[in-house]
Every structure is written in structure tokens, then in C-alpha cells.
Write a structure and sequence with these properties.
Helix 10 crosses helix 11 and helix 10 crosses helix 12. The protein folds into 3 domains: 111 residues, Rossmann fold (3-Layer(aba) Sandwich), CATH 3.40.50; 207 residues, ANL, N-terminal domain (Rossmann fold), CATH 3.40.50.12780; 110 residues, 2-Layer Sandwich (GMP Synthetase, Chain A, domain 3). It has a 5-stranded parallel β-sheet with strand order 7-6-8-9-10. The chain is 28% helix and 22% strand. The protein is α/β, with parallel strands linked by helices. Strand 16 and strand 17 form a beta hairpin.
Length: 438
């Protein structure tokens, strides 16, 4: 994938990078919106691509060589990029798409200048100790493929601009056992992993030992579970949220000086960033992160943040404005800021607060693989539900009668960041939610 991305840049073509984890319909919608005319595919993905393009005969398909053929020793004729920086910096290069956590994935076009943001961040005199500075001159294991913006920034941009060495994951599905093997056979300074994989590694002594050998651990895509953080933060010098968006890239927030606090991994500082503002919302004491720059009047991230109760200029991301659950009486609650209270239960893998348009919220939970639904006592969730209710107005509180366990036949749906696809997963249980209404 990285080879084709560089080739597209040299040929001054725009390359669309649809994730195979989104539906064929969603991929086709992205291709149509970008007026795609050619689909490059490995021969092994012929059936999958044919399914995507079954009603798009105007898109030509071309089989691309396997990696071994790309890396043959025979010298190829060089292809040079003919434009200067000023001539080509604003040219479109790569089209990523949003994850679709709360709806349909949306295409986002990145230019050459946008991809150089790593270099601009590293050179900024007012910013120190960001994720970029942590990665510079170090070896970092990244399982994220370069069709995802995070993978692209690490594999091409960070290696090019700040001398990071990228250790790439295998093409097969990543498991805790695979990560342990990578750590044991390569010298890794740090890594960026989805929290679900970190949780899996924390279940074994070998996984804990692998993670605790790191100088820094970055997580992204979802909150890091408190039970995993408690096992790791005493041993890893820096555990930090690598937060960002497809539209804006990495936020490049910095770590902070209060590293001895038990919850230090939750908080980021934007004090060194010019243009970052937190605008208060009416409910819950939450703020939305907004960027304003001279060349850009306003960029609303739709990310929700909570200010630190003691340390000024420290912020914790707790969800998005589109995670808001509106109830029928015109009140509601921000679900993702409350769900970590439920996933603190050792048997709960994921929790979703729903009930859009209903009088009261609902709470389906998915259990960890080791726990059978028939053996789980829903009543054991009561102390965790009470923690949620202590944080919200009585008119939006959860009732134990509206808590249920997701069935093994209908597990929650996950996106490529290993976070739950909220609306799609709630949609699986529309009948069960309707039944609660009596």
C-alpha cells in the first residue's frame, strides 16, 4: 500500500484508500463521490472488489503485483516528481475516510502540504513533548495499515521527517500473541495500539511484560480502560492518548508535568498550541475543541473534552457531540463520557448507552469472551450504573430494568479503530429496546 501511495504522488494522481472493514455499499459511495475511474487490486481480493463494483461498470479494475514483485532486485527506470514544493503543495494526493463510528464514512482529501504537518509540528519552537517528539529518532511498532491516516502518518511522514523507524505489523489479523512475538524479536521503543489490543495483552504475564518494556505507549481510537492503565502506568514512563481526526490529523497535544498522578494518562495539554480553544457547552460541564488560525476562520472538531478539576490547561477527551443521546422529553446525555463507568466492570468488554427519542435511556453491554451471558448477573452492574447516575440529572438516569446483555449471536459491530460502531450496534438491538417500552 505504501508503495502505491508514493507512486501516486510521483505520477500526480489522487489515490482513494477505502477500508475493507466498511461495507461494500459505503465503499462504493466513497468511490462515486470522488469520481473514481480505476480500482487497483491484488489478485487475492478479486471477489471482494467485484462485489463492491458490481453496479459500477465504468470503474476499471487493474491487478497490481504482489509485494515480492515490487521488491525485486532488478533496477527499475526512475520516475521523478516534476513540480516544485510551491507548485505542488496544495495538490490533492490521498483520500482517506472517516471511521463511520456514528454514521456513514465520509471521504477526506489530504494534500501534500497536509501530509507535511509532521515536519511543521517538529519545527514549531513553541511545542515540545508531543507525540511527534516522542517518536523522533526512535523505533515504533505500528500495526495500523497505511490506508488509515494514522498508519500513513507513521509509516511515511514520521519516518521521513523526524527519523523514526517504523516496525510494521503482519498482514494477518493482529493478536496479543503476535504483538508479544514482535516485541520479543525486535527492539521497540514505543508503539501505538488500539485499547482493545492493549486490554488483550494485559490478560497475560507475557503481554504485560511486553508492554512494560516500552519507553512510551500511545493508544488511539477509544478510551484506555482504567483496569489496563493501572497495570501499565507504574512501569511505562509515558502513556498518552494519540488523539486526532481524519479531517484534521493528529492534534499534537503534549504530555504534561503531573506524570505521577494515577490518572495522568487521561489528560493532555494544549497550552503550547496556538489556535486551540475549548468552548463550553450548556450541559455536563463539557467543552468542544475548536481550532482557529489566520488562514482558517474556524474548525469545529465535534470532540467533547472535560477540564481537569485541579490542573489548569489539562483536558480529557470524553466523546463527541454526535454521541449525544436525545430523549423524548428534550433532555439527554453524552453517552461516551459515561460508558467508561460501566466498562470498569471486569466482565464487560463494551457498553453502549442508547434510547434515542425515547423517554429513558437503555444500556446494552457486551461481555468479555471469557464470560458467558448465561453466567453473568446483571445485578452486578448496579454499583457501576449508580456511578453513572450520580453524574447526571435524575430525568436521564439509567434504570436497572433497561440494562441487558448483548447476545453471542449479535455481538457489537466494531470499526477499524477497534471502537464500537455506535448507531449500527444499537440498531442490532432495536427490537429488544422496543420491547423495554412495554
Amino acid at each position: 500500500m505504501t508503495i502505491t501511495q508514493v507512486a501516486a504522488a510521483k505520477l500526480q494522481k489522487v489515490l482513494i484508500l477505502p477500508s475493507p472493514l466498511v461495507t461494500a455499499e459505503a465503499q462504493r459511495r466513497i468511490l462515486e463521490s470522488q469520481k473514481c475511474t480505476v480500482y487497483l487490486r491484488p489478485s487475492a481480493m478479486k471477489a471482494e472488489v467485484d462485489a463492491i463494483l458490481h453496479d459500477a461498470p465504468h470503474i476499471q479494475t487493474i491487478n497490481i503485483p504482489d509485494l515480492e514483485q515490487f521488491l525485486h532486485e532488478t533496477e527499475s527506470e526512475p520516475v521523478t516528481y516534476s513540480k516544485t514544493w510551491d507548485e505542488g503543495k496544495n495538490d490533492p494526493w490521498l483520500v482517506f475516510h472517516t471511521s463511520g463510528t456514528t454514521g456513514n464514512p465520509k471521504p477526506v482529501t489530504w494534500t501534500h502540504w497536509m501530509m507535511a504537518s509532521i515536519d511543521m509540528m517538529a519545527a514549531a519552537p513553541n511545542i515540545k513533548d508531543s507525540m511527534v517528539h516522542r517518536a523522533a529518532n526512535h523505533r515504533l511498532f505500528t500495526p495500523t495499515p497505511s490506508l488509515h491516516l494514522t498508519g500513513m502518518m507513521l509509516i511515511i511522514a514520521t519516518t521521513s521527517y523526524v527519523n523514526m523507524t517504523a516496525v510494521l505489523g503482519p498482514s494477518t489479523a493482529l493478536t496479543p500473541a503476535t504483538v508479544i512475538s514482535v516485541f520479543q524479536n525486535t527492539h521497540i521503543d514505543g508503539t501505538l495500539l488500539p485499547p482493545a489490543l492493549i486490554d488483550g495483552l494485559c490478560l497475560s504475564e507475557a503481554g504485560l511484560a511486553a508492554l512494560r518494556s516500552l519507553s512510551f505507549l500511545m493508544y488511539t481510537g477509544a478510551p484506555l480502560a482504567a483496569k489496563s492503565a493501572a497495570l501499565l502506568t507504574p512501569y511505562i514512563p509515558v502513556v498518552i492518548n494519540g488523539v486526532g481526526t481524519t479531517e484534521a490529523g493528529g492534534y499534537f497535544a503534549t504530555h504534561h508535568e503531573h506524570r505521577d498522578d494515577a490518572d495522568a494518562y487521561l489528560w493532555l495539554s494544549f497550552a503550547q498550541q496556538k489556535g486551540a480553544m475549548f468552548e463550553p457547552l450548556i450541559a455536563d460541564g463539557l467543552h468542544e475543541l475548536v481550532f482557529t488560525y489566520p488562514h482558517l476562520t474556524r474548525f469545529e472538531t465535534h470532540d467533547l473534552w472535560r477540564p481537569h478539576p485541579v490542573h489548569r490547561d489539562l483536558w480529557q477527551i470524553v466523546g463527541r457531540t454526535d454521541d449525544y443521546v436525545p430523549l423524548s422529553h428534550s433532555n439527554g446525555l453524552h453517552a461516551s463520557s459515561l460508558e467508561p463507568e460501566i466498562t470498569a466492570h471486569p466482565a464487560v468488554k463494551a457498553a453502549l448507552i442508547g434510547g434515542h427519542g425515547r423517554a429513558k435511556p437503555v444500556l446494552p453491554v457486551q461481555l468479555v469472551e471469557e464470560m458467558a451471558a448465561s453466567e453473568f448477573e446483571v445485578e452486578s452492574l448496579r454499583p457501576y450504573v449508580e456511578k453513572v447516575n450520580a453524574r447526571v440529572h435524575e430525568c436521564v438516569r439509567l434504570g436497572m430494568g433497561r440494562v441487558f446483555v448483548a447476545s453471542e449471536e449479535k455481538p457489537f459491530l466494531y470499526i477499524e479503530k477497534q471502537s464500537v460502531a455506535r448507531m449500527q450496534s444499537l440498531g442490532l438491538y432495536e427490537a429488544e429496546i422496543e420491547a423495554l417500552e412495554g
